[in-house]
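Dissemination and training. As part of the outreach component of the grant, students in the summer workshop were shown how a complex can be specified as a set of sequence lines and then modelled as a single object. The example used during the hands-on session is reproduced here so that future cohorts can follow it. Participants entered these lines:
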Amino acid sequence: RKEVEQDPGPFNVPEGATVAFNCTYSNSASQSFFWYRQDCRKEPKLLMSVYSSGNEDGRFTAQLNRASQYISLLIRDSKLSDSATYLCVVNVGTNAGKSTFGDGTTLTVKP
Amino acid sequence: GAVVSQHPSRVICKSGTSVKIECRSLDFQATTMFWYRQFPKQSLMLMATSNEGSKATYEQGVEKDKFLINHASLTLSTLTVTSAHPEDSSFYICSARALTGELFFGEGSRLTVL
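and obtained this result:
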């Protein structure tokens, strides 16, 4: 079993739809969590950190469920420009610890 | 936000030559940097973890003598692909981890070995 797992998709949704991705992790010692976005042939860029209390940034909402060991990303009112691959990153330990990526979930938003 | 600079962005070389890629954190110190490889339409593959002042930790299946990593300072890590062959052609990306735990990525280096 992979340490961090994501549904690879692809998710194909119409503009304006709400879409949610989950990312499960196996190490209960995981301490920090992030969502990244990667466009084709580009490097990943930080989308948002995931806080224990959940956090929202415009149309994007991230949540953490420690009991079930998963994080989620909700995108409301999808735009064409949201089409990308979304990666979750889970850190175990502090600065010297390990960062593990999911394989990414591909989203395509269609007109 | 934090910036990580990677150079060169594109390199074409002949088979058998060595290529060095630099990764610099421009506005923060990074004790840990990571090197990845990504083939078209595939996910990022972690190659190694680079720790300042110590030897890199390589992932299983990655040849440490072929992919030399040096992390001589808190702001610079280098990856050298030695005796490159066409199958080494790929998109190589580095990232640096800030104290907050976030990873900041370089722009990537596209290597083509002829």
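The first strand of chain B starts at residue 4 and ends at 7. Students were then asked to discuss how this feature might be tested experimentally.
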